[in-house]
Specification:
Layout (H helix, E strand, L loop, with lengths): L13 E4 L20 E6 L3 H4 L5 H20 L4 E4 L10 H12 L3 E5 L4 H14 L3 E4 L8 H8 L7 H12 L3 E2 L2 E2 L32 H13 L16 H14 L1 H7 L16 H5 L5 H13 L5 H25 L27 H13 L4 H15 L3 H11 L5 H12 L16 H7 L20 H12 L1 H5 L5 H8 L3 H19 L6
Parallel strand pairs: 1-2, 1-4, 2-3, 4-5
Antiparallel strand pairs: 6-7
Helix pairs in contact: 2-7, 3-4, 5-12, 6-12, 8-11, 9-12, 11-12, 12-16, 13-14, 14-18, 15-16, 18-21
Length: 526
């Protein structure tokens, strides 16, 4: 790195504040950056790992990626002032760190890219206003669509369905299109992407590319072990990409080795197999190490070259161009009130086993144990195992949100909160999902091998071997009968409950109440 001239305080024109999930060298905040007059400021703060008890791997990923990004910027000739986590003057919060920087450099302007979290946006804005410093917030060009464009899309709509957003986005950006028509003649191949592995299991799987921690990452691992020793996580297995170059290698690995089978098996679960055919790219995109445009282009190129079937490629593209952009729009459209939504009036605490994995339910034990060790579970494990159980039990959705934000390496609030409250817990009352994702243990039996090693029987709702998912499912339908009856997509499930005699329903509801009392010590009987 070339020698940099130390700027005098009076010469600082712009202080560019870069947050930990904005590691994008093409960031709009760096447009017209002048190394003679501008300074980039970055800060590691304990509050970001303690406002929820952040998984060790999540914290390591953020801090290591930040430090690598810092060094890359410096190598490019930019001046970066960087506050490390264990610096003696570190105030522990983003706004406190920003105040230190402003008072030190007295910039004419503070500049940042729009944050991905409502609370961070308000805290930073409030601080610079308090300090009396002019500031500018620039657009986040990492995303293909803007928050304002989503507001325009949502205006006048009673329902914000993904498909209504996704199809125009495909056409607008000319992704997986043949002229004006979708490739293959259909917009959505979701019905082709619901396969399970069957009795034979997934067989030999290509292991995702692992990235051995370098000296920077090893230093961060030691720091995190020292500062947050009681947080969940096993850092001996840390192998996530922490640079743009590594993220691109991870993308190529997925495209070449797993994309072709991703579609058919994206909803499948297999005990002891955390990765299966999933991409492991969300964390890289959410930190802005990987441009989603590049991901979309490579996926489509695989289809055009005959390397991956259309259903797999379309399903993957829908997650990025559709779902990822869509949930960000929902988040900013409805915050700050969105986080308080609780349509089903759920009040229970999160069961303690979510922090230990110690439960006799095999599917939950496997998914949670994997999560606590690796900081990862794929979307069906999140939606239809850990999330489904919490919803059926009646856990306060804010507690579920805080757990998901804490334990997954790819969790940032703009994407995690709508996925949890909207999709997983139906707490927003249908803003995102057209119905609650409610199912008995039979769904898990169909999509995984977990039930074979479980003491509980998914077909039973009562008795000592009754599957808690099945018991709680029927109790859920009964408890929320009034709300569900008015939902056309839930009528069949409501009618199935009505076919059970009153004595059977009473027995199921009593069993559900006993289970809740045993699990969380609270009676939730209606």
């Amino acid at each position: 790195m070339g020698k940099q001239r130390r700027l005098k305080v009076a010469e600082v024109r712009r202080l560019v504040f870069v947050l930990g999930d904005q590691l994008d060298e093409s960031s709009s905040a760096l447009d017209e950056f002048d190394p003679e007059t501008d300074i980039i400021f970055m800060a590691e703060v304990a509050h970001e790992s303690t406002k929820v008890v952040s998984h060790k791997a999540r914290t390591v990923l953020f801090l290591s990626a930040m430090r690598h990004f810092r060094d890359s910027l410096r190598s490019a000739g930019k001046r970066v002032e960087y506050l490390e986590l264990d610096a003696p003057d570190n105030p522990g919060t983003l706004e406190g760190a920003l105040e230190l920087a402003v008072k030190r450099f007295n910039p004419a302007l503070v500049l940042w890219v729009e944050p991905g979290e409502y609370g961070v946006k308000r805290a930073v804005e409030s601080k610079v206003r308090e300090l009396g410093v002019p500031f500018t917030e620039t657009i986040d060009r990492h995303f293909l669509t803007t928050v304002e464009e989503f507001r325009a899309f949502a205006k006048g709509r009673k329902m914000l369905r993904l498909e209504h957003f996704y199809r125009p986005a495909r056409a607008r950006f000319k992704i997986l299109m043949d002229g004006d028509e979708p490739a293959g003649g259909e917009w959505n191949y979701d019905t082709d992407n619901r396969g399970s592995f069957g009795k034979q299991g997934p067989g030999l799987l290509p292991a995702p590319r692992a990235f051995i921690p370098d000296s920077i990452t090893r230093d961060v691992i030691a720091l995190v072990e020292r500062k947050f020793p009681n947080h969940p996580g096993d850092l001996s297995k840390f192998d996530w990409p922490v640079t743009s170059a590594e993220a691109e290698l991870a993308l190529e690995d997925f495209i070449e080795n797993r994309l072709s089978e991703f579609g058919q098996y994206q909803d499948a679960i297999w005990m002891g197999q955390p990765w299966l055919y999933h991409s492991r790219l969300a964390s890289s995109m959410n930190l802005k190490l990987l441009d989603p445009r590049k991901v979309l282009k490579r996926a489509e190129a695989a289809y055009r070259a005959g390397k991956a079937p259309l259903a797999s490629v379309e399903g993957f593209i829908r997650q990025i161009l559709g779902w990822r952009e869509y949930v960000r729009g929902v988040y900013w459209l409805h915050m700050p009130g969105y986080i308080e939504r609780n349509h089903l009036a759920a009040t229970l605490p999160l069961p303690a086993f979510y922090w230990t994995g110690k439960t006799e339910m095999s599917c939950l034990s496997d998914a949670i144990d994997q999560t606590l060790k690796l900081g990862y579970a794929h979307h069906i494990q999140r939606l239809m195992v850990t999330g489904l159980f919490a919803m059926l039990l009646g856990v306060n959705p804010k507690f579920v949100h805080e757990w998901y934000l804490a334990v997954y390496v790819d969790a940032v609030e703009w994407v995690e909160l709508p996925n949890t409250l909207g999709m997983s817990q139906y707490a927003d009352g249908g803003i995102m999902a057209s119905k609650p994702y409610a199912a008995t243990g039979k769904y898990i039996e169909r999509m995984s091998n977990a039930c074979k090693s479980c003491k509980y029987k998914p077909g039973l709702a009562v008795g000592p071997l009754a599957c808690p998912f099945t018991t709680l499912y029927w109790d859920f339908i009964a408890r929320h009968n009034d709300k569900l009856t008015s939902n056309p997509r839930m009528l069949m499930q409501v009618r199935n409950l009505e076919r059970k005699g009153p004595d059977e329903v009473k027995e199921i509801r009593a069993a559900a109440t006993r289970f809740r009392l045993k699990l969380v010590g609270e009676d939730l009987a209606v």
